Amino acid sequence: MAKAKSTTKKKTANKSGSKKVAEKKAVKKTTPKKVAKKTTAKKAATSKKTYKGEEAFLASINPYKLTKNEKYMSAKQRKHFLAILTSWKEQLEFEQDKTASKIQTNNNNFADDSDRATHEEGFALEIRTRDRERKLLSKIKESIEQLQSNDYGYCYNPYCGVEIGIRRLEARPTATLCIDCKNLQEIEEKQKYG
Predict the structure, then answer these.
(1) Does 77 reside within a domain?
(2) pTM
């Protein structure tokens, strides 16, 4: 009889023990899901700040959905282009700041001259890229000013002044000439400079 009681106690202890183990496993299973959600949220937040180049940014623009009988450069369209330009500006400024801090904190001492030359060549390439982006930043700021003064979206050629077009502006938000005037300008440049 004593053996029967001890075996039933062991069975109930095993059952309660297995319940505790199952509860612990259930707790462990839910915890990684919460952690995974946090890490994906962090990745999404940091991916907004990475700038992969002009082509990648322009490809990521969501096209504007035109409605029938919508006036050109309406408030809704201006808001769309303002969002594009400010996002582009913020990303470029972030990259500028990142490069500046990288150059300031760099104090590598290389034992080999070829390693130092490779490192400096990488810096020179990055500085050239940032200089090009700095010029683009000034164009973006001009475009934002044009948007605020309601001059954005129209050809700057004094003899033309037509609408540049929504799709052309999405392809090149800093465009100041319509496609015809731009083609003429490129032909003139080829004739002058070859």
Answers:
(1) yes
(2) 0.67
The CATH number linked to 85 is 1.20.120.910
From 154, 144, 136, 165, select the one nearest 57 (Cα to Cα). 136
Mind listing the pLDDT tens digit for each residue in 73-95? 999 999 999 999 999 999 999 98
What residues contact residue 176 under an 8 Å CB cut-off, 6+ apart?
155, 156, 164
- The answer to whether the beta carbons of residues 85 and 147 sit under 8 Å apart is yes
Assigned domain for 47 exists = no
In this structure, are residues 176 and 156 in contact, taking their beta carbons and an 8 Å threshold? yes
Is 177 contained in some domain? Answer: yes
Q: Is 96 helix (H, G, I), strand (E, B) or coil?
A: helix
In a domain, 136, yes or no: yes
Q: Are 143 and 153 in contact (CB under 8 A)?
A: no
Helix axes 113-148, 75-105, angle to 10 degrees: 160
Tell me the pLDDT tens digit for each residue of 103-160. 777 777 777 888 888 888 888 888 898 899 999 999 999 999 999 999 999 999 989 9
List C-alpha distances in Å: 1 to 4, 144, 153. 5, 91, 96
- Domain of 186? 55-60+71-102+116-193
* H helices present in the chain, as ranges: 2-48, 54-59, 75-105, 113-148, 166-171, 179-193
User: How far, in Å, CA of 74 to CA of 84, rounded?
Assistant: 16
